[in-house]
Description:
0% strand; 2 domains; 15 helices; 62% helix; mainly alpha
Amino acid sequence: xxxxxxxxxxxxxxxxxxxxxxxxxxxxxxxxxxxxxTLRIVYNAGIRYPGDEExxxxxxxxxxxxxxxxxxxxxxxxxxxxxxxAILDNQGDEFAPNLxxxxxxxxxxTVEWRQEFADAGVKHPDEVxxxxxxxxxxxxxxxxxxxxxxxxxxxDRDCNGMKYVEVAILAIAETGKDRFxxxxxxxxxxxxxxxxxxxxxxxxTLRIAPYADKEEHVEKxxxxxxxxxxxxxxxxxINNPDYYNGWTEHLFRRSNLIKNHEEVKEMLTRLxxxxxxxxxxxxTAKTLKT
Length: 290
């Protein structure tokens, strides 16, 4: 819809959660009418563990339309084998079906775990839980800086945009290089990686970013995103009191000795070059529970 010159996405775009898509067909047959947003509602309502507010809203709307009991009954239906086969047998596709919904359904008891899942790369719920606890332990170390960064960007701490920042932090932490710089600088770097990852996702999957359909303009657009993200992170760093108050604690760390805007930008630019390979991971990895 372009009524006000803006682009919006309603409905389902490249649905890769095939279990949610199947469940949507079970839900929609109980709707009295199909409206403008119905497909979006039933698809999101079919997700096993709704994370963000929009998805939870769709669950509430579905319950209102068909009754909470009927919704619960549909969510309890055993996932058909043909849906499982569609997921496992199409992993070679460009937009392969997501594997994580199988994990969620194993947890819920609507799919029984089997070795074939492990062989295909599906994680058992116990493995996911162990990884999640380790990830949360890492993220907790940066919680103060993440709250400050979110506030500086006008974002809710738990919004999807901040999830990208969290995933970037985890990717940085995997390299071990976060141990050699302050939390402030690590989050500033993760902020840039996160914003670039969102832009890449918008172009490659949603195709809603400016010039996404013109390859010759993609590089120019990404440079613009990078510069804006850098400016946001630099401004946040130099306006953060901890940047100046904590320098004695890390006396020999370059990140706490920078004195001005240009030097902070130069440092973050250098770090971006060192971590450029992490951007795709931050774009595609479904690392955190939603």
